[in-house]
Amino acid sequence: MKHTYDLIIVGGGIIGSSVAYQQSKLGKKVLIIDKNASGSEASRAAAGMLGAQAEIDENDAMLKLALKSRKMFPALISELEELTGIDTGFINKGMLKVAQSDEEVPFLKKQVQYHAEWDHEVKWLNADELFQLEPALSDDLSGGMFIPNDGQVMAPQLSQAFLQGAKAKGAEILEYCEVEGLLLSESRVTGVRTSQGTIQSENVVIATGAWAGKLMERAGIAIDTIPVKGECFSVVPIRQIIQSTIFSENGCYIVPKKDGRLIVGATTYLNSFDKSVSLHGLSGLFEKAISLIPDIKHARWEKAWAGIRPQTGDGLPYIGPLPGYHGLFIAAGHYRNGILLSPVTGKMVSDMIDNKVTKEERPLYETFKIDRKTITAVKEGYR
Ligand code: FAD
Ligand code: GLY
Questions:
Q1: CA nearest to 16, candidates 319, 357, 368
Q2: Which site in 11, 144, 156, 209 is 20 to 30 Å from 136, CA atoms measured?
Q3: How high is the mean pLDDT of the chain?
Q4: What does each C-alpha distance from 175 to 33, 42, 141, 193, 194 come to in angstroms?
Q5: Which domains occur in the chain, in start order?
Q6: Which residues line ligand 2 (CB under 6 A)?
Q7: Ligand 1: which residues within 6 Å by Cβ?
Q8: What atom of ligand 2 comes closest to residue 55's alpha carbon?
Q9: Mode of pairing for the β-strands spanning 381-382 and 179-185
Q10: pLDDT tens digits for 222-260?
């Protein structure tokens, strides 16, 4: 391991690995540091939906960023799969956001209307049309929004593909090493202090997901990241029973993966770093999943797990330089959409490091800047 790098990335989840991939491709000397095995936290727990239109309701900056990211998938996936040999499970069979009662119909129809203004493929399906498209769905549904362009990936595999892609381009990976503080000198970052000693670099990206607030606090800088636990389970049906991802407002989604499994998620517990799985959480998910696809109860059980989503105070990720600290960047707080937003975040941060953000991109990126919240002053020196 060298002791001086062009860039240190703290956190080897999908966000840190995506930044690492972009910078390594440019020939930079990159080191990724993770306190665990890389990609073993939220990025491993995710269901892998690329739900730009299903999960983001408003046509605001977040939707624009999500659509920009979704568009990057096909080319990036080919590039990564060819480079690493990892099958990321990318499929584009659309999502169905379904109404489970007549009361949900007006809200969903409004969403259809609003998305259809610029995406003519989005449409409303009544109960019969829904049933024709996906015969395994419950006949109690009241219709749904068909979103053909929201695809999906196998999240752990995509996270590994970014990481291995970065490695293939020369990045180094240091695992089971905790970053305990930042090295700062006259408002410039000079490296990190870790459980294995100090490492120098002129640029540092904090991509520690739900743990970003904790790490920055140690450096005397306040950013609000809120851990939000989510539980999921997977089953294997005897034969493929659905093609599209089914997404319901009742807090349940069912994602048919390329390898034949169905991933069912997810619960939501605010302020929890606890990754245990409860029977209470699972039984709620079972009930909701069966109300969407009755036949799912015959599928073979595989496993259950939990992960910690990185939420922020205002619900938007922090992506950008930390004002006042030259060379220090944050890319954290992607909450429910970190897999979807991983391509654009990697490119954004990489362009920010190299001052390559275009005039056209600047207004959109401003929304996610770090100093939209009060940042506490930091003292110089070792932290
Ligand atoms: P993480 O993957 O959590 O990585 C952060 C890394 O930082 C970890 O590996 C950790 O070990 C490391 N770290 C922390 N502190 C330190 C330190 N001090 N020193 C060194 N290393 C450190 N998103 C979607 O787009 N689609 C979905 O369908 C989807 N489904 C989800 C379902 C569930 C149940 C959950 C929990 C999340 C889901 N998400 C989904 C959200 C997505 O998983 C996250 O937004 C994304 O994984 C965040 O990636 P990350 O790299 O920022 O964080
Ligand atoms: N995006 C799905 C989840 O966070 O559960």
A1: 319
A2: 156
A3: 94
A4: 6, 16, 47, 14, 11
A5: 4-47+156-224+314-377 (3.50.50.60), 92-149+227-312 (3.30.9.10)
A6: 47, 49, 55, 230, 265-266, 309, 336
A7: 10-16, 33-36, 40-43, 45-49, 178-179, 207-211, 215, 230, 232, 265-266, 307, 309-310, 332, 334-340
A8: 1
A9: antiparallel
A10: 899 999 999 999 999 999 999 999 999 889 999 999 999
pLDDT digits (tens, 9 = 90+) for 98-138: 999 999 999 999 999 989 888 999 999 999 999 999 999 99
Q: Indicate which atom in ligand 1 lies nearest the CA of residue 33.
A: 20
Q: Which ligand is nearest to the CA of 45?
A: 1
Ligand nearest to the CA of 10: 1
Residue with CA at minimum distance from ligand 1 atom 47? 43
CA-based diameter of the chain, in Å? Answer: 66
User: Residue 320, class by beta-carbon neighbours within 10 Å (0-12 exposed, 13-18 middle, 19+ buried)?
Assistant: buried
Q: How do residues 66-87 score in pLDDT, each as one tens digit?
A: 999 999 999 999 999 999 999 9
The predicted pLDDT at position 59 comes to 67
Q: What is the average pLDDT across 298-319?
A: 97
Strand ranges inside 107-168, DSSP E: 123-125, 143-147
Residue partners of 134: CB distance under 8 A and separation at least 6: 96, 242, 243, 244, 246
